[in-house]
Structure formats: structure tokens, C-alpha cells
């Protein structure tokens, strides 16, 4: 009801009493009794109280209607804006609509109990105090960012005209202000609640039962606004330090000035004083526990990300391995079913699994890791601000006053610390929930993959010869087959070792026999070692040696007692080499001495590793043998070998008749290789496993 109608109604109610006896003596203002003045004052206060309550309810109805227009009509029509912009502009307006809808419903219900309405309104505000603070502080914190977006839209005339047309069609009273008019409405409303309550309180008698309740509600809403302002200030401080900038060295150097140098020097000095025990360190057990929990969460996320990355790499390598496309040189039967099933899985099941894994596990995990960067930077900045805070506190105790900049630094630390203590617990909890959901998704994907593989394999399994065998019998069959195969492999290994040439190292380099003879005469045969692979020295005392060079051992550890680095002598230089790349070089008598030729040449020795290999000279020309060791060609007359590579021997000696070198053909290339690197491959008995009859 409008204010004028209420006043007219009150006057009409009072007219009959005034007109009942026109000639009655009316007390003049000077002679009116105190009781009469009190009643008039009470009636006036009651009237203004009813007007204030009516204003509260009526404006709440209009406010909620405007919120609903913003949340549905206007936001729904601004589809030309990115979704991210809409999320910033309207923030959590849906939550505000829900809270204020319930709040308005409670206000309207108080109207049915007019005698207790004021007290009910006070209790209602106390009941909604926390909810109002929670939803409005989120909206107010993002308000400045929303205004920045509005300013960017104004720089694009065409876009601004479209936005303005939509708003004027829905809310004509917005005028030229447009979005700014709508966005500021929730801020105006939350700040107006204490004023409306104060107006009701001023027109409530102090001795009324509703007065203390209404007084507490007024103070509560004032605290809500104060807390929102403090939260907004903390968010502004935090947003300044949560930005993780990727700066180049030049950009970092450009930011250095006398002010930053002074700050960093002061902080370093404060830190050194604390480490030396000259000044006390501020202890905050609550924050320390939260920080430890956060670092633990960060470590879990980091390790999980690394493991998933390794899993994806292995999966990628697995998808590149396609044995079904190779010629297995095995007859039909189960091999056909195996190839068909594997091809199906490689082309469909596994690629789909990888796609889902990247989208549902890897990308959320990367987003979670990126989310941790902001709090990590805040925690780091808090330590810097704590050093500033401690220095200012010391000065405050000594001098009694601080400068404006020092006071700002003091408040900055308090804001950062308060916000971290308030929000880190919730952040840690949400991060763990996020990580837990990612892991559950990963397990679910694994389960789906296993289920899909089994479904695809059902048809192929039915065609395999062992599909009718019970599980226990199949296990026994596999174990027996593996045992038989293992025995055959051991037998093959023993037979192969009998015909293998000895584990000879690379032949001596040309012209090295004289150097080896000098080392032999100086150190003796027990100190000679041969390099098994090329060595590249990394340190100043490390040697760089080619494979096959013979050295003499001086000490089997370095100066620090590290037994993996040996000190050796090459006959010209001394230095350290890895012990794992050295093998004992044995000196054996010449063939003539083995045949019993004694005499003055009894001590003459042949410088070649022992035991002597089975010579390939007995192998007829054009014989197929196997390369036992890898060999790297050093000239165009030689050819490289890989261990296990089939080799065709063309001549079992070189052009001078030396049997230590053989002319071979490998993959269409011809050249000489050491004869000791070749051996006949035995033909073992057929092996494998078969089904029981």
C-alpha cells in the first residue's frame, strides 16, 4: 500500500473520535497531557515501522524480479558473448536467486502474524546471515572483473549496440547504463539491508520484545557487509600474486630497480637474522599444517601426472608394435584367429581407449596441476610478506610508529595469511576429490577396456583348440609347456656355448701390439684390461678410449673411494675410466708352444684374448654362420655385424691367408670381419607346446 494511502487510512480512523463532540473542550498543545503525547508518539512510530516493513518487502519483490530477468532472459539472449564472459558477468547470480527467493518467502510469511512481525523479521535476517554473506561475497569479488569486460565491450560499437538493445528490450529503466545498471544491483541490495533494518529499529520502542532481536539483526548485516569488503580486499591482494608469469631473463632484469633490490636485501637480512637466532621467527602452527597438507596434495598430483604420462608413452609404443602384420612363418589355425583379434583391437579398441584416456584422465590431470600453481605462488609470496611483517612489527615495538608503505605491507601479509588459512582447507579437500575422481575414471576406463577385449575375443576364443579345457587344466597345460620350453632353451644354450667362440673383445687396433707388449713387461699379465666399448671422458681426469684398446690397471678406485672408476695407464696417458667397460685381457702362448715347441722362445707370448675361439677357417666356403658379437666396420674393406645376424662366409681367410679375418656377405654387402666373431648355429630339436591327447 502506498504511503499516502496509509496516512489517509490513519486519518479516517481518527476522524470519528475527533468529530464526536465538536464543542468539547479540546486541550490545546500547551495543556495536552503527557500520556496523550506518548500515545501520539507511539502511534507515529508504529506507523513509520509499518511503512519501513512494507518498503522492505516491496523492494525485495522488485529486486528478486530483476535478478530473475538477469539470470534467465538477459543472460539467455547474450549468446554472442563467450561462455567464459557470461560466467564472469553474472557470476553466481543463480545462487543469489535461490537464497533471496527463500528469504522473500520468509518475509511474506511474517505478514500473517502482524503482532510478532518485527521480531520474526529480525530472526529471519539472523537465520540467513551466513547464506547471504557466502553468496554475495562471491559476486562482489568478481564485480570488478565484470566491469572490465563491460569496458571492453564499449570499445566495440557494434557489439555494444547489440547488448544495449537486448537490455533495453527486457529492462527499459536500465537506460544508457546498460549492463552496468544490472550488475550493480546485487551490491546495492546487500548494502541496503542494514539501512532498512536500522529504519525499522528506529521506530521500535526500546522496551519492546522485538528490539534486541532487531538490534542483533542490524549488527549482523553490518558485519556481513564488513566481511564482504574484507573478502573482496583479500581477493584483490591474492589476484595480484596468483598470476604465474613466464618471463624471459631480459624481462626479469628489466624489472630490477633500486626499490626491488632494497626489498630483497631487507628480506634476506631478516631471514639471516632468524637463521642466526638473533630475532624470533613467527610461528603459525595452523598455517604450517595446511601448507604441509597442500604440498602433500601437490606431490600426489605431480606423481600421478608423471605416471599417467609414462603410461601414455608405453601405450603409444604398444600401438606401434603390430605383430599381426608380420609373417610369423606359422601355419593356419589359432594364428589366424590371433591375427584377426589383434588387428581388431589395434584398429578399434585400443585407439578408442587412448582417446578416452587423454580426454577423461590426462587433460583433467593437467588442469588440476595447473590449478595448483596459483596457491603455490601465494604460499611463496606469503613467506616474503611474512619477512616484511616481522620487520615492521619489530620497528613498531621499538619506535612506536611506521610509515604508510610499511603499514600497507603489514596489512598485505595479514590479508594473505587470513585468506590462505580460510581457503586452503577447502582447496585441499576439493583437489583431493578431483584427484580421486580422476583415479576412479582411470580404473573405470581400464575395466571397460578389459570388458571390451573379452567381448571381442569371445568369437575367436571359441575357435581356439584349448577353449574346451577347464581353467585349472589350462593353467597346468601352460605351466607344463613353459617348463618344457624352458628346459629346451637351456639345452639350446648349452649346445650353443659349446660351439661359440670365446667372449673375445674387439681385435687389437693396428700397431697396438708393441704398446701392449710394453704394458705387459711393465705391469705383468694380471694388470692388463681391454676396453669393451667406446669411452668418452666427461671430466678433466677422465680418458677417452676406443673399443679394443688395452690398458693397465693402476688402482681399482678413485680418490673418493668410488670403486666404479678405475685409474689406468694406456702407455702414454693416465686417467680414470668406468670399471664396467673393462674386461681382463688374458695372454696365452702361441700355437707353436701349445704343440710342445720349447727352447729359447719359451717365454714368447701371443697377445690375444683367451680362450681361443673355434676357428671359422674350417668352415667351407659359402657357409651360413651366425655373428656372435657386434662388430663395427672401421674401413670400406670391412662390414658391420649385429649379434645374432646370419652371415654367409665367402672365404675363411683374408688375401694373405690370415685365418683371423674372413670374407663374408651380410645383407648384400661384402667385407672382412674377425673370424672369432662368427660361429655355427646349432639346430636344436623342435620345441613348443602341444595339447594333451
From TrEMBL:
Domain annotation DH: ranges: 48-231
Biased composition (Polar residues): 1-10
Annotated ranges, domain SH3: 524-587, 620-683
Pfam families recorded: BAR, RhoGEF, SH3_2, SH3_9
Sorted UniProt keywords: Guanine-nucleotide releasing factor, Repeat, SH3 domain
Keyword set includes Ubl conjugation: no
Region listing for Disordered, in residue ranges: 1-43, 595-618
Function: May act as a guanine nucleotide exchange factor (GEF).
Name of the protein in question: Rho guanine nucleotide exchange factor 37
Organism whose genome encodes this protein: Equus caballus
Amino acid at each position: 500500500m502506498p504511503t499516502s494511502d496509509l496516512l489517509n487510512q490513519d486519518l479516517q480512523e481518527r476522524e470519528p473520535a475527533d468529530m464526536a463532540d465538536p464543542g468539547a473542550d479540546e486541550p490545546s498543545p500547551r495543556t495536552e497531557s503527557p500520556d496523550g503525547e506518548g500515545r501520539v508518539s507511539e502511534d507515529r512510530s508504529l506507523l513509520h515501522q509499518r511503512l519501513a516493513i512494507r518498503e522492505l518487502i516491496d523492494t525485495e519483490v522488485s529486486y528478486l524480479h530483476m535478478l530473475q530477468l538477469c539470470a534467465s532472459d538477459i543472460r539467455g539472449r547474450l549468446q554472442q558473448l563467450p561462455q567464459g564472459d557470461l560466467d564472469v558477468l553474472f557470476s553466481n547470480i543463480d545462487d543469489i536467486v535461490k537464497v533471496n527467493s527463500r528469504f522473500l518467502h520468509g518475509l511474506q510469511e511474517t505478514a500473517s502474524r502482524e503482532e510478532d512481525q518485527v521480531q520474526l523479521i529480525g530472526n529471519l535476517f539472523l537465520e540467513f546471515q551466513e547464506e547471504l554473506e557466502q553468496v554475495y561475497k562471491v559476486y562482489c569479488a568478481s564485480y570488478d572483473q565484470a566491469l572490465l569486460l563491460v569496458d571492453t565491450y564499449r570499445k566495440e560499437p557494434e557489439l555494444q549496440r547489440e547488448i544495449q538493445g537486448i537490455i533495453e528490450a527486457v529492462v527499459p529503466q536500465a537506460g544508457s547504463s546498460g549492463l552496468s545498471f544490472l550488475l550493480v544491483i546485487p551490491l546495492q541490495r546487500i548494502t541496503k539491508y542494514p539501512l532498512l533494518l536500522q529504519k525499522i529499529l528506529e521506530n521500535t520502542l526500546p522496551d519492546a520484545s522485538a528490539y534486541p532481536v532487531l538490534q542483533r539483526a542490524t549488527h549482523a548485516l553490518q558485519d556481513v557487509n564488513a566481511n564482504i569488503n574484507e573478502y573482496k580486499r583479500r581477493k584483490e591482494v591474492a589476484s595480484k600474486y596468483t598470476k604465474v608469469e613466464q618471463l624471459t631473463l631480459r624481462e626479469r632484469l628489466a624489472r630490477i630497480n633500486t626499490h626491488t633490490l632494497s626489498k630483497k636485501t631487507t628480506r634476506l637480512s631478516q631471514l639471516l637474522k632468524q637463521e642466526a637466532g638473533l630475532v624470533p621467527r613467527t610461528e603459525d602452527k595452523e598455517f604450517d599444517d595446511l601448507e604441509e597438507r597442500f604440498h602433500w596434495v601437490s606431490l600426489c598430483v605431480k606423481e600421478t601426472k608423471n605416471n599417467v604420462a609414462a603410461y601414455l608413452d608405453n601405450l603409444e609404443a604398444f600401438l606401434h608394435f603390430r605383430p599381426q602384420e608380420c609373417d610369423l612363418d606359422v601355419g593356419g589355425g589359432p594364428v589366424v584367429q590371433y591375427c584377426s583379434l589383434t588387428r581388431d583391437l589395434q584398429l578399434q579398441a585400443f585407439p578408442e581407449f587412448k582417446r578416452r584416456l587423454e580426454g577423461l584422465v590426462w587433460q583433467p590431470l593437467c588442469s588440476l596441476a595447473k590449478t595448483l600453481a596459483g596457491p603455490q605462488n601465494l604460499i611463496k609470496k606469503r613467506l616474503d610478506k611474512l619477512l616484511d611483517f616481522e620487520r615492521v612489527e619489530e620497528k613498531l615495538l621499538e619506535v612506536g610508529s611506521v610509515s604508510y608503505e610499511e603499514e600497507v605491507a603489514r596489512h598485505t601479509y595479514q590479508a594473505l595469511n587470513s585468506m590462505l588459512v580460510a581457503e586452503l582447507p577447502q582447496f585441499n579437500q576439493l583437489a583431493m576429490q578431483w584427484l580421486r575422481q580422476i583415479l576412479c575414471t582411470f580404473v573405470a576406463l581400464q575395466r571397460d577396456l578389459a570388458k571390451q577385449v573379452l567381448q571381442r575375443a569371445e568369437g575367436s576364443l571359441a575357435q581356439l583348440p584349448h577353449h574346451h579345457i577347464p581353467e585349472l587344466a589350462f593353467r597346468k597345460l601352460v605351466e607344463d609347456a613353459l617348463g618344457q620350453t624352458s628346459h629346451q632353451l637351456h639345452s639350446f644354450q648349452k649346445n650353443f656355448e659349446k660351439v661359440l667362440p670365446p667372449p673375445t673383445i674387439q681385435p687389437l687396433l693396428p700397431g697396438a701390439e708393441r704398446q701392449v707388449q710394453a704394458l705387459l713387461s711393465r705391469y705383468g699379465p694380471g694388470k692388463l684390461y681391454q676396453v669393451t666399448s667406446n669411452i668418452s671422458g666427461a671430466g678433466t681426469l677422465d680418458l677417452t678410449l676406443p673399443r679394443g684398446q688395452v690398458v693397465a690397471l693402476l688402482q681399482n678406485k678413485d680418490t673418493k673411494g668410488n670403486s666404479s672408476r678405475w685409474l689406468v695407464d694406456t702407455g702414454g696417458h693416465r686417467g680414470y675410466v668406468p670399471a664396467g667397460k673393462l674386461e681382463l685381457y688374458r695372454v696365452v702362448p702361441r700355437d707353436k708352444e701349445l704343440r710342445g715347441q720349447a727352447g729359447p722362445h719359451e717365454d714368447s707370448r701371443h697377445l690375444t684374448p683367451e680362450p681361443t675361439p673355434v676357428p671359422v677357417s674350417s668352415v667351407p666356403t659359402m657357409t651360413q654362420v651366425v655373428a656372435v658379437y657386434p662388430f663395427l666396420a672401421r674401413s670400406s674393406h670391412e662390414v658391420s655385424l649385429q649379434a645374432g645376424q646370419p652371415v654367409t662366409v665367402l672365404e675363411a681367410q683374408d688375401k694373405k691367408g690370415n685365418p683371423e679375418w674372413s670374407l663374408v656377405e651380410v645383407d648384400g654387402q661384402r667385407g672382412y670381419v674377425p673370424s672369432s666373431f662368427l660361429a655355427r648355429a646349432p639346430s636344436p630339436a623342435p620345441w613348443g607346446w602341444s595339447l594333451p591327447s
